[in-house]
Design goal:
With 425 residues, the chain is mainly α. It contains 16 helices and two strands.
Length: 425
């Protein structure tokens, strides 16, 4: 293995061990280091040089500038990925293999480089760039409106009286469900997940004047999305978290297991967590945690909204592999970033932001800038008066409560505030 994460100098980490012990979790490891776990830096270097020698001296040259540019860029990206996977420090996750998470870090850096390059283009050039990935892109898309008639049962339509309901049962339904299941695995908190679920539905209400995609019926917002898809996803996600928190972790080398069935089980469990750290955010316990939580929620919403605005601006249809691929990729990036962020917040010995967190924030901000630059008129459409009014009320209440809770209350009632803090701890 190469290196360590930003907060500790050795593994296993004392902070992580203390969090595990506080939940009475059992983790044992026989310490077996097989070929699979050894670093192969020299082997990778030799293979890379052999490939370059073949390209330079053996393969016939092609007199096609576009072809050579694409191959050159792929070769440069491949070199960066190989360097990163073999040389960059390990992150907080080691399953299924630390190299996998080093790969995710390298790919996230390449994604950020691509976003920065797109940022310096015009919107038309950016759309044409995507045609190099898929020739079917670069064409205007009809934006689907989920509003319209909100009758669940339409007696006037004899052939399909529930057509309004079935029209809304598209690919976004399983995406909502599985998306919140996976997001719950990285947030690991009922309160935080439900606040974000409610918050995003309110954002859709607030922004439907900008994107028709956000215009939905009330039952689509609060029954189909919030209660059914999001609610079930959050529930199953928390049940999965409870399972990982309670299960014992007994790691043995594959060749130390005598039975074939045991070896198969060991291979499957390689894709499960090495151990499990529960996230106790405690947002109201201090001003630092409260502000940290607000920033976290805002960044989360920005990443979620970018999914809709980017496909709208760059003309990418929702079923396209770029949309689904970005969602899966950002979930992997977010999983590491969330783990690093929680340790940065909770561990008093951690004085540096995690590498993946740094890159993740850069990606979110760059995506925001692309949306602002390429479609300023849409993104800056003013809120309807009634929407602006309620946001003003909400923000005023949030600021007032923050000042009262963390500045006024400790000053006038220090004993009461101290007792509440001790009780929360």
């Amino acid at each position: 293995m190469s290196g360590t994460n930003a907060c500790q100098t050795k593994y296993p980490k004392e902070w992580e061990n203390s969090k595990i012990k506080s939940k009475n979790q059992t983790v044992s490891d026989d310490g077996t280091q097989s070929f699979f776990w050894r670093a192969h830096t020299f082997t990778v270097l030799i293979i890379m040089i052999v490939v370059l020698v073949y390209e330079c001296l053996v393969e016939q040259q092609v007199q096609d500038q576009s072809y050579n540019i694409k191959r050159g860029l792929i070769a440069c990206a491949s070199f960066f990925v190989l360097f990163g996977v073999t040389q960059t420090p390990d992150g907080p996750f080691i399953r299924p293999h630390p190299a996998f998470w080093r790969l995710i870090l390298c790919l996230s850096v390449l994604y950020e480089i691509a976003l920065i390059y797109i940022l310096f283009q015009s919107v038309d050039d950016a759309r044409q760039l995507l045609t190099h990935l898929d020739a079917n892109l670069g064409k205007p898309l009809p934006e689907k409106d989920y509003g319209g008639s909100c009758k669940i049962y339409d007696p006037d339509n004899l052939e399909s009286p529930f057509h309004n309901f079935w029209d809304k049962m598209d690919g976004f339904v399983p995406t909502h469900f599985f998306g919140w299941w996976l997001k719950t695995l990285i947030l690991r908190d009922y309160w935080l997940c439900n606040v974000m679920s409610i918050g995003f539905e309110l954002l859709e209400y607030s922004l439907q004047h900008q994107l028709p995609n956000f215009s939905e019926c009330w039952w689509d917002h609060w029954i189909l999305d919030f209660l059914v898809c999001n609610g079930l996803g959050i529930y199953l996600g928390m049940k999965t978290c409870e399972y990982f928190e309670m299960k014992p972790y007994n790691w043995r080398g594959l060749w130390n297991i005598p039975t074939f069935k045991g070896k198969i089980k060991r291979i499957v469990t390689q894709f499960s967590p090495y151990s499990w750290v529960s996230y106790e955010w405690r947002p109201t316990s201090s001003l630092k945690r409260w502000l940290f939580m607000i920033v976290l929620i805002v960044l989360f919403f920005m990443a979620e909204l970018a999914t809709f605005y980017l496909k709208f601006i760059l003309w990418i249809p929702p079923p396209h592999f770029l949309c689904l691929g970005r969602l899966i990729f950002m979930w992997l990036v977010g999983a590491v970033a969330m783990r690093e962020s929680f340790e940065y917040l909770d561990n008093t010995l951690c004085k540096k932001m995690g590498t993946q967190t740094w890159v993740c924030i850069a990606i979110i901000m760059t995506e925001l800038l692309i949306c602002l630059k390429f479609d300023w008129e849409t993104v800056t459409k003013p809120f309807p008066p009634e929407v602006a009014f309620w946001w003003y009320i909400f923000l005023s209440a949030l600021v007032t409560w923050t000042i009262g809770q963390f500045l006024i209350r400790p000053y006038f009632w220090p004993q009461e505030a101290g007792q509440v803090e001790k009780k929360k701890e």
